Amino acid sequence: MEMMLEEEREELAREARYLAAQGLVAGREGNLSVRRGDLVAIKGTGVRMLDASPGDFSVIDMLGKHLEGPRPSSEYRMHLMIYGARPDIGAVVHVHPAFTISLRALGIAPEPSTEEAKLYYGRVCAVPPIDPGTEELASAVARAASSGCNAVLLEGHGLVFSAAELKDAVDGAVAEERSSQVQFMGAISDLLQKIYFTCARS
Ligand SMILES: [Zn+2]
Fold first, then answer.
1. Taking 90 as the threshold, does the pLDDT of residue 201 lie above it?
2. Using 50, 70 and 90 to split pLDDT, how confident is the model at 46?
3. Cα(94) to centroid of ligand 1, in Å?
4. Domain contains 110
5. Domain holding 44: CATH number?
6. Is residue 40 part of a domain?
7. Cα–Cα distances in Å, from 111 out to 96, 127, 181, 184?
8. Is 8 among the residues known to form the active site?
9. Residue 53 is part of which domain span?
10. Whole-number mean pLDDT of the chain?
11. Is there a domain that residue 1 lies in?
12. How far is the CA of 65 from the centre of ligand 1 (A)?
């Protein structure tokens, strides 16, 4: 039987396994999608990225109508609203990167701090905590994306990375987490040095 967006679903499955291998998601976390015209291939709800296969991805239209495959991810509105706001975007990746989230929790704004990161984004926009899967979260992320932001941090939750091509959205998300890891380690070592000198002086 012929499968809709077969090539796209194969690539999505491959990239989903890569994101899990990179530690950007655990268990059933995260979702990713690709847009082709009026059709969107998106991860099914409850699918583990680590062992994702093409059949784990659903096809929906731009209105959210389910056309093929499993029930789409509960974040499908977020993907559709980004595509609606940004015709230049062809792929959206949502992950739960630990260093990015922790850095922000320390009160530090993630920014591209490595050469690799600078290739993929100029800034990270932040969206305050909003319940996952809601229309409210979808519109907040789409608003940030429509201001030209391809890297959107969901405070206390995760990261949404958008790009024209799936590989760039995936590599951008990985580069963002590595950049946040570098910033996080730098912040911790500054803090340890301060503590050390404070103790040495007293
Ligand atoms: Zn999430």
1. no
2. very high
3. 6
4. yes
5. 3.40.225.10
6. yes
7. 17, 15, 11, 11
8. no
9. 6-201
10. 96
11. no
12. 22
